[in-house]
Amino acid sequence: QVHLVESGGGLVQAGGSLRLSCADSGRTFSTYAMGWFRQAPGKEREFVASISWSGSSTSYADSVKGRFTISRDNAKTAVYLQMNSLKPEDTAVYYCAADQRLVAGPAVAEYEYWGQGTQVTVSS
Asked: Strand runs (DSSP E) across the chain, as ranges?
């Protein structure tokens, strides 16, 4: 079983930073591609960023390019999302997801495992 647990969300002012963490409380996901998604009230869950199993390949939604950075530490079975220059439009519940494939893209359906989400609120 893969059990993903997110942490690091909270309330921050526009222009501030947060670092989200995702850890596997069960088996390791060191060989899984990982992704971050977010969902705001009334909106579809949307892709934010993904990273290959080795960490050598990353992908970002256009809306967060240059501001967010995804990384992973396979030894710790953890994945991170560093969020800088936050905007009110970034407000959402952020979800960590895992795909047993080595590389995954932006489609929600590609991911097999999901965390419970962590709330990020950016005030203006």
From this structure: 4-7, 10-13, 18-24, 33-39, 46-51, 58-60, 68-73, 78-83, 92-99, 113-114, 118-123
